[in-house]
Write a structure and sequence with these properties.
Layout (H helix, E strand, L loop, with lengths): L2 H21 L8 H14 L8 H36 L3 H21 L8
Helix pairs in contact: 2-3, 3-4
Length: 121
């Protein structure tokens, strides 16, 4: 991984974290498990001689991270609608939060069922 990729990863992670913390009181779930599944799917699709190659593994990790970043950004466009629907279905804050988390989980599970996203190099 070159200097630019390392710094971009750090910038994306920090920006995403700050955005979620500063702008939202909604309980967003962690997508680390989904990102790991995407990475593993990428690695398993590699030809055998590349599965142990560090550069190929780093590329799979980078693609998984970028794919989940895209998924999060897309989800955030409809998050208010999901949260509002949960508020109409439930009265208590805990139930609303659980409903919202379940909707996110369903969204990210559906994201995993789609064909892999081909990102530009």
């Amino acid at each position: 991984m070159n200097y630019f990729e390392r710094n971009m990863r750090l910038i994306i992670i920090v920006t995403t974290a700050l955005t979620l913390v500063a702008c939202s009181s909604k309980p967003f779930i962690s997508t680390a498990e989904h990102q790991d599944k995407l990475k593993q799917r990428c690695i398993s699709a590699l030809v055998d001689e590349l599965k142990q190659d560090q550069a190929a593994n780093n590329r799979c990790n980078h693609n998984a991270m970028m794919s989940m970043h895209l998924a999060k950004r897309l989800y955030e466009t409809g998050a208010d609608s999901d949260y509002t629907q949960c508020k109409t279905l439930h009265a208590e804050k805990e139930q609303i939060d659980e409903c919202f988390k379940a909707r996110q989980l369903k969204y990210y599970d559906n994201w995993l069922s789609m064909p892999p996203v081909k990102l530009a190099k």
